[in-house]
Fold these 4 entries.
Entry 1:
Amino acid sequence: MGRDQRLEKGTGLGVILAAATCDPAEDIICAPANVLELFEFKTEILGIPGFTRTTFLIFFAAALVIAFLYFGLRKRDVVPGRFQSIAESMVTFVKEDIAVGIIGPEGAKYTAYLLSLFLFLLVGNLFEITPFVNFPITSRMAIPAFFAIVTWVIFVFVGFSKNGFSYFIDTVWPKSVPIALRWLVGLIELVSVFILRPITLAVRLFANLVAGHLMLTLLLASGWIFISSVGDIGVRALIGIPWFVFGLGIFVFEIVVAILQAYIFTLLSAVYIQTSVHPEH
Amino acid sequence: MVEELAGPIALVGYGLAAVGPGVGIGIVVGNAIQAMVRQPEMAGVARTTMFLGIAFTEALALIGFVLFFIA
């Protein structure tokens, strides 16, 4: 079995198993030839064209979210069970704290979008630290970019439909700014609102998850390789222990990052919609 | 001396782009902590605003990150 095949099989099974499939006798630190190997899965499941592991995980995340909401809110008991109260507190959190809290009373109708966004990104981010999955689907640019574009379409559409064409005029020609600076502020606002907002929204999520996945892979995999090759390299295998412990510390940190980034993406989507609903603030 | 250095200059660019947001996020979070300590009953509002401030301050670092891929 060649080096590339081994790595592909390893990354397919997850970080820790990836370390086990490396051959420590040949190369102790089995870094991939290209860092993209950690993020691209070429093997097609069931022979369906284009249906790779990433695609499967996207559908799996969507199914998880749908199942969570369906089974959580199916019975609607007055005294909710444990599962129902988790689902209800999620919905209440997104509705009260994000949709109504940021956008205002008329923000309740955006709850559906924000809730699906939050739950899907949360599940997608938490795949990073789920054992045997170990791959955040949001570290592929397609997912954050798609949701950023959807948010962009929503807030531009809401801005134009609520305020007419004056939404655009107020953005590029802000009345509250002194006339001498107005063109400059307008130019900055034009670039920032219509171009940089969706880009930064997508890149923030993407970059955080890529960095987290890389750190976890490097620390846990190399630590495990050192520890497991103790028969070949003797006492020098001890260097793997601090690496593995540091990797476990990062693991806990990544739980926080995964939840926080899903929250921030949803929060910023709500803020961008709010600036279109009330453009003067 | 200079010709001995090799590697993409974009790496240096990203490092420079990260300085400003680093300082900025420090200021944002520090002031948010002050606000939360002084008025614990407003901690929820301060936290939300803090995340927003971080998100906007981060934008420059994120643009640097993108430029690293483009360059």
Entry 2:
Amino acid sequence: MIKVINLKKYYELGGEIVKAVDDISFTVNQGEMIAIMGPSGSGKSTLMHILGGLDSPDAGSIEIDGIDLDSLKGKELAKYRNKMVGFVFQTFNLQPHLTARENVELPLIFANISAKDRKILAEEALVKVELIDRMNHKPNALSGGQRQRVSLARALVNKPKIILADEPTGNLDSKTGDVILKLLKDLNKEEGVTVIIVTHDKYVANSTNRIIQIFDGKIKDTKLDKKL
Amino acid sequence: MRIIDNIKISFISLLRQRVRTFLTTFAVFIGVFIIIFLVSLSYGAQDLILKQITNAFDVNAIYVLKKDSFSFSFINPKATTEKQENKRVINNEAIDEIKKIDSVKEVEPISQVIGNNLEFKDKNFDNRLIKGASGAGWNIKKDDKFIREILVGRVDNLKNNEIILTKQVVDAFGKNPEEFLDKIVILTDQGSFLGSQTKPLDPQEYVVVGVIDLKDNAQFILSINKVIADQAMKNRYTTVDEYLEIVGYQSLYVKTNNETEVKDVSAKIKELGFDAQTQQDIVNIFNNLFGIVPLIFSIVGIIAVIVASIGIINTMIMAVYERTKEIGVMKAVGATNFTILRLFIVEAGMIGFLGGLIAVIMSYIVMLIFQAAIIQVILPSLGVEGVTEIFITPPWLIIITIIFSTLVGILAGIYPAFRASRLDPVAALRYE
């Protein structure tokens, strides 16, 4: 379970204080699939970075399964990112010089897993995203949808509890976007992984169980199982 | 992250910018190459000179000179403080004293003869003469270790009007040793330095009684008695005895019964107030003087490698900029700051290591080629034979240079790696 309590994150931009996350509180249950929705600049990406342990809040706290994220430092935080969460980015963020399989292996390398086991786990993940036949291709030899599937395989290879997807379909056409959404849904249903999708796309948001709407760093509305 | 993965990822990263990696590695390579090449050359040269020394000198022999004659005044200022008059003269009394020392087998005086013109009386010799020939006054024996080979004739019991020529002279005339036997040689004293009180000797005729190959660069040998008599006359002494008493012999060649006694005998001779040098003493002097040469030679290369480290720093800073986003991704998927630090430090260390490794391989090949060329082409044309090695590369030199170049790479990588490790992951992920 994820508990976000009175979370705040302010920036200074050109002498003005930007309240990227302004006193946000919400809870996500294990195995839920939710969307955090808002226009660009609403603070949803900042929220996702804090949830993923890439950024730290100025105030408030995040508890993941009873652990206060703020209490994790350096190595523990890296371990949290490695084991507990999996990131899916809008721009895929694959290492261009590595093959699909090597990209998927990257989190496993940082988890000290042997080359032999990495190969097995990476191939398993690539089977799940139905890209095993392209595993020896480098990103530039893959389509956008395929790249995002590699990115998804990389996110799930370490069997995380949470997948954080930042505009996962933003760079894809609707058809390939649907494939990615379906994969995320399957993962959520079959493996019980908590999926949090950050999006400004109503269609994407509607494919989840719950939508948290953010405007100017504040929660505007929370709808459970309701379509916008 | 496992070490093997660290090395693999760093290596793959290096290969991504091949030209840049090559150029940066090349700078390291040049420095290490210079170190290995020059140090190996100086070791080779030292070995060659040492072999000459140990070849030329008899291990059982001790060379006796007046006190402090072996010292170098710029190294040993003491040498100039003691007055010449206080030093013991190498006269017959001294020879008798040295002969009494246990295990001394024989004592032979030797004096140098310099500044003579050597000319053949025989018309067959094209009137060729050797200017400024140098020789020795020495009652040489046929079993002396200084003699490499007696080519023709005899060496023992030289009379005052007899001369032994060396292979050098024979080679200069391009004739067979046999053709020199019984020929008449005229030695003309070339006089002395300006302002000295000596009287030039009249030209004198000598009969060639033998030709030998000598482990020394003397061109002829005369009897010691004749040389001393000439010296006495030249220096305006009325009798030879007077000359010997006041000036004495130039040096003594002392032979001991065996090698183990050399040190003791040498010490006893020194107690008598002379300078004594054994083969080991000369080797030690040489080693003391030239031991520093490889270090001096390697300084050029060491500086080159250190300058190359600036290139490594530059390359690595560029790499950090280019891979900012990748660093962000790595952090997002679980890389710690230390992991990123390691990746970049290993990458920089690899540039140093590769530069060193390539330098070791290339210097080996280049030294082989140089060595073959020098031994097979250049030395024979200079008349030098029997040299088998020009370069000597001790194994530690290879190990040290590779460790050194790797270490320089690692040190050069610290700052860029530190910058990479401290990148804010969110900012890095947004970096385009």
Entry 3:
Amino acid sequence: MAEPHFEAQLTRLFSEPPAFPDAELFATQISASLDRGWALRRLLIGGAGIAAGVIAAAQLITTRFSAELQALSLDGTRGLNADISVALDKFNQVVATPASVEALWLAAGLALLALGFAVTRAMEEF
Amino acid sequence: MSMDRPPTGHDVELAAFAAAGDRRAYGELVRRHGSAVRGLLRRMGADSATADDMAQDAFLAGFEQVSDYRGEGAFGGWIKRIAARCYLRKVKREARMILTDEAQDGDDPAALNEPRTATRIDLDEALKALSKGERLCVSLCYGGDWSHAEVAEALNIPIGTVKSHVKRGLDKLRARLAPPIESARREAHG
């Protein structure tokens, strides 16, 4: 037999795959492996996405909360200082303003009234 | 591709679907070429369990690389090449093969003495008569369509050694296969 003919026969024999009774099972196993791999990949991507989202949200909230707290604190400090300044100004105005006669009589009347209440209470107690 | 219909079409078309992530299309390719890949690995000398493991690895690797397949050659040849490389990596890693130029004692004496049926051409049985190196080289050249140079490069052996393996392997196969082929041809013609 000529060599090329034999080689052609051999190539043809090699191209005929042996019959495997479990060929369908083999294909099914590979499909299942692909599905498992895909599911795992999706799980990992999803997990990584969720983790990244949580971290990003935490960072965002923390940064914003901190900024807002800082702003609030600054506002509060400014407001408190302003209130104190206003109160001091009013107090100074009151102290600095010369008292009128009506005010003095009113003050004296209130003082007498308070003294009367105090004497009455003292008499009830003792 | 519709999910309720089984994937059909040419291998190139299915490979394009698979490259787009269609696992059902790739499953059909596995169905079509699974036996060829498993058969080639067995013919290269892998035992059945190893051959199936390697074939599975090759198909899974093939799915990852299927976008590289442009349809220049047959899909079967492309996936068989991946499978053969998977097996060769394993062989080289385990240093199990002795690929010297000498004929080896690894020939299967049982296979050499097995009675042959008159007309049945059983390549797988005939391959058992070859040494591991001969079997690997012959299977890659005739089953995987590799050139001698490609086999030499993959096995990291001189090309002359590959040619020697192939020649000796062919001589042994011819001795076991040629008479049945001849008689089969005579029967067919006559």
Entry 4:
Amino acid sequence: MGIVIAVISGKGGVGKTTTTANIGLGIAMNDKKAVVVDFDIGQRNLDMILGLENRVVYDIVQVMDGEAKMKQALIKSKVNENLMFLAASQTKDKTVLDSEKIKKLVEELKEEFDFVILDAPAGIESGYEHTIEFADAAIIVVNPEVSSIRDADRAIGILDSKSQKVKDGEDVQKHLIINRVNPAMVESGEMLKCDDILDILNVPLLGKVPEDRAIIEASNQGKPVITDNNSEAGKAYKRIADRLCGKDVKIPEFVAKKGGILGLFKGMFK
Amino acid sequence: MFGFLKKKSSANTAKDRLTIAIMSDRESTHYPFMDEMKAEIIEVVKKYIGVKSVDIKKEVVDDVEALSIDVQLDK
């Protein structure tokens, strides 16, 4: 029986889908069976990040409505055969989601996979509540920026009240990923420190991912950045996936790269 | 160097503003189950005594969170 993890955020655009794709692949690289599910009905995006947009035939809504079998709808990753993908519907809207159907779908996936990772819509949107309802754990993605953090706190509030686990008197595990950290800005006091964010949100840290040009490049090519061994963000996602698989991997402090004219200039005055 | 000339870093400003904003968000947040819970409390109290209204507030003092439930009786 697998574990169901919802990847959530307060506002959109903080990197949920990228995180979902990379964590899914990272788990698969640990020889565990993983499935990533796009729950952002009407805004299909995970297929692009995984480079599988041309292979989508059936989507999650068709599976839930019994119009397609799960086996027909699951798409195998190009990079790792332990990873499968289930696409969101592009034509329907989020109102089609129904608790009973989601429960059935999630339970079916749990039988088959070690990790079921759900890419949720942003916390302010309808459809968010449905995605978290049957999750055993949640990964909250934030950027070191005020609106993202404030909205994340609200999304966590909804998680605490709507999750079936909480209603059953159990705990829903929470993990925080701080995404798009710019070490130079943190050093100069222009960006919130990770510790400050942890103080405010009071959720344990799962990992930090630095801002990295390689992420855009990876999404251009439809190859998750974790496959790029030279990218700092890719390495960060690898560490996060390893931690989720139970490995004891430290969270390193990022240091700003000294370089360029500005870096040289700063170096001279130190 | 020149640290004493710098004004307060913007990250610190962000932290202070966020702490206050989130505290007030959390206080005013009426979780989605609040209405349901209110209705149930009214039902329970009604069995024994007339009740006019129920008000539930979340209070946070340091690390302790508490719900304060105000039941106004119907005379």
